[in-house]
Design a protein that fits this description.
With about 625 residues, the chain is of the alpha/beta class. It is built from 27 helices and 21 strands. Strand 13, helix 12 and strand 14 form a beta-alpha-beta unit. Helix 16 crosses helix 17. It starts with a strand and ends with a helix. About 5% of the residues have low confidence.
């Protein structure tokens, strides 16, 4: 048994690191849909594995502490993450603004020269009592002046204040260190360290009683943002950093090492990593809740494939259960269709905590990561799943993009909104989106991506900056339009026909479209190749909507047909009392009726503006209802 153990945490399937020193451990395994083979789990003997949604990777650190005899009682213990590792190489590294060294993927060069082999790791660790990650400058990273303000900017500061009160009562001697750490701009993040056994035990004995009491004092029922339910984990990360900082004043040998951030850590399938001959590469995004509707979409796609082509379908997901994955594979896969599941859970968490304002959902931007997740693909077709495919997508995939970054269809609905509320939308188009001609706004549900060109220009980080610096109306879609303006090749609208739902009919969208857009829309209406049920009025909830019958024809062929019917039945039984608990529900209802009434007494642009306001409020009300299902 090694005298040194470096644990690497895994919550999703990724490239697994393992050696005599490096030991992989699955976090939250007690509640995980699948147990990963060839690694430890944090659910054996004394554990808090079931609390992983609150504690994050700290559930694994707790298990190591309480089950030290199970790992051979090593003299030194360390902790890393599946995509963030200590770099034991002797290179000089360039870091990003978050203090991390970026790598595209884990390969032989990375393993040998950066992460290094056991012999090199042991040689470095043996000379020191403490290994720390290099400090992060929170001002450079997030424009926060102190560690305390950094937390306040990204999370609910009341939780951190509660933890400080608990710390003050339990460890009053620690108050000067806590104040000094909270008021500086450099800190230690990521729960990464290598410590002597005695120091590790002192850290855990100090940390976990504080977090246990914090967990009891947090009122989770008042937390509206799901990501913030991990408050114990977020606070715990700062407390670990604070404790590591306190070690600098002790008589210990300390070394600071750079930390990597590996962009693509997925398993490499040798048969599918590089494009096959006549391969059609697709990317979709789905949650576990949306799987029944994903199943309908895939059924329609499967029925319009050709034996002359191979279809690789990459599903970007963060929480699809093992059972659902297997059902979808059995339903769809055959000799020329392959399903790949690519977890983006931790990647989204990375951008949620480091890049995105907390008012945005990181999951919205999953398509941004496609160039990284498919590093050996030069082209990919991204599709929303609230669609039905009526034509072989090979014809769409093989459209030449020339030197353009993206291929997409013009957005007829947005074009109508532009003319309905011209004063406001004209300013939004020209000032925010930098689009002079409203016919050049594209719909984001179907996107043919030039991955090679996107990778060459570092597009992901640039779009993130665009998103952070703008208040977009239709968030990710508007961000793409802003960035890819004049870099898009427009394709026939029949490949992304947006149904003429009841709200569009009420506002008479067609008569408000540019003549060219209206002609394209009417042609696509009669000959759609992909039907897109965009907006709130989904066919699985509104059976009388346009082309809903087509959707149900494919739904009947899926293994989820009974579940879809069950959900439809439930959706009609939501109580009035449940509605009232939705955030701002009452206010939005009152505003909705206000504009519905006032629009009858005004004319021209004012009436159009009131109609748009009523439409937007209706969408918010429907969203509130959906939350309460």
């Amino acid at each position: 048994m090694s005298d040194i153990k470096l644990f690497v945490s895994y919550k999703t399937k990724n490239y697994v690191l393992k050696s005599d020193i490096i030991e992989p451990i699955q976090t939250g395994r007690a509640i995980a849909p699948e147990h990963f083979e060839s690694m430890l789990g944090d659910d054996v003997n004394e554990n808090i594995s079931y609390l992983n949604p609150k504690y994050c990777e700290l559930s694994a650190i707790y298990w190591i502490w309480k089950n030290y005899h199970e790992i051979g009682n090593p003299d030194k213990i360390g902790f890393m993450h599946y995509r963030r590792h200590f770099l034991f190489g002797d290179k000089t590294y360039k870091t990003n603004k978050h203090g991390l060294v970026e790598f595209d993927r884990i390969d032989d060069d990375y393993l040998e020269n950066d992460l290094c082999n056991d012999e090199k790791i042991r040689k470095i660790i043996n000379d020191f009592d403490v290994i720390l990650p290099c400090e992060v400058d929170v001002y450079s990273s997030m424009k926060a002046k102190t560690i305390y303000k950094h937390y306040k900017k990204n999370h609910d500061i009341s939780h951190y204040d509660i933890a400080m009160d608990i710390l003050t009562k339990k460890h009053p001697e620690f108050i000067p260190i806590a104040k000094k750490y909270n008021n500086q701009k450099f800190g230690y993040f990521l729960n990464m360290f290598v410590l002597k056994k005695e120091i590790f035990f002192e850290l855990c004995e100090w940390l976990f009683p504080i977090l246990e009491e914090l967990d009891k004092k947090i009122n989770y029922s008042k937390i509206l943002i799901h990501n913030q339910k991990r408050a114990v984990g977020f606070v715990g990360e700062r407390l670990v950093g604070m404790y590591l900082y306190s070690l600098l004043d002790k008589d210990l040998k300390v070394k600071k090492l750079p930390v990597s951030f590996v962009k693509n850590t997925g398993f490499v399938n040798k048969n599918l990593d590089f494009p096959r001959q006549n391969e059609i590469t697709l990317a979709l995004s789905s949650s576990n809740e949306y799987v029944p509707y994903l199943s309908v979409f895939l059924q329609s796609l499967k029925e319009h494939t050709s034996s002359d082509y191979f279809y690789e379908i990459n599903i970007l997901e963060r929480n699809i259960s093992f059972e659902n994955k297997e059902i979808i594979k059995r339903q769809i896969e055959n000799s020329n269709i392959k399903i790949n599941y690519i977890s983006i859970a931790n990647l989204l968490d990375e951008y949620q905590s480091l890049c995105l304002n907390r008012h945005f959902s990181a999951e919205t931007y999953s398509r941004l990561f496609i160039p990284r997740l498919l590093p050996n693909k030069n082209k990919c077709l991204y599709l929303d799943i609230d669609m039905i495919v009526l034509e072989d997508v090979e014809k769409l995939f093989n459209i030449s993009l020339d030197d353009k970054y993206i291929g997409a269809c013009r957005d007829s609905i947005m074009n109508a909104l532009y003319h309905i509320d011209f004063d406001k939308m004209e300013k939004y188009f020209t000032k925010t989106l930098k689009i002079e001609n409203p016919v050049n706004y594209f719909q984001g549900g179907v996107e043919l991506l030039n991955l090679q060109k996107i990778r060459e220009t570092g597009t992901v980080e640039k779009i993130m900056d665009v998103i952070k610096n703008n208040n977009f109306l239709f968030v990710d879609q508007c961000a793409f339009n802003c960035f890819f303006n004049q870099k898009v090749k427009f394709i026939d609208s029949c490949w992304n026909f947006e149904t003429y739902h009841q709200a569009a009919r009420q506002m008479d969208f067609i008569s408000n479209m540019d003549e060219k857009i209206a002609q394209e829309y009417m042609k696509a209406l009669n000959e759609p190749k992909i039907i897109h049920y965009a907006g709130q009025f989904k066919p699985w909830l509104f059976l009388d909507e346009q082309y809903a019958k087509v959707w149900w024809e494919y739904a009947r062929k899926t293994p989820y047909y009974e579940e879809i019917l069950y959900r439809l039945n439930l959706s009609s039984k939501i109580s009035d009392e449940a509605y009232k608990s939705a955030f701002k529900y009452k206010i939005n209802v009152l505003k909705y009726w206000k504009y519905k009434f006032l629009k009858n007494f005004v004319f021209g642009k004012t009436r159009k503006r009131y109609v748009v306001k009523k439409y937007i409020l209706k969408q918010k009300i429907n969203s509130a209802k959906a939350i309460l299902k």
